[in-house]
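lol ok so funny story. i was supposed to be doing the assay writeup but got distracted and ended up predicting the structure for this chain instead. priorities right. anyway since i did it might as well share w the group, maybe its usefull for someone
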Amino acid sequence: MRCTLDARRDAGMDLSQRIDHDERFHHAMVASARNSALSDLYAYFSRAIRNTIERTEIDLDLPEPTQADHEALLQAIEAGDTEAAESAARHLLTPSLTALTSER
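and the output, tada:
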């Protein structure tokens, strides 16, 4: 997860690379759970998730989780702090999900 997140940061303004590394970070995070049902579910929805990542990166009206948001999540995971990881994940996802669902 650390390598993919560092690569996301290092991609800078290269949007395609940043999206690719962001997607890899999400896949690595899911794989780290060692939960085959979660992995299968994530694989099923991965195209829709990538589309959402692309939209939040491209559409300036949508909030994009920052590198700092991703770093906070990874730090909580690395520390084994499930409560902090859940909080960081909610903080990271809520603005984008709220904006996307309010468009309907």
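The chain has a mean pLDDT of 90. DSSP finds five helices and no strands in the chain.
back to the writeup now i swear
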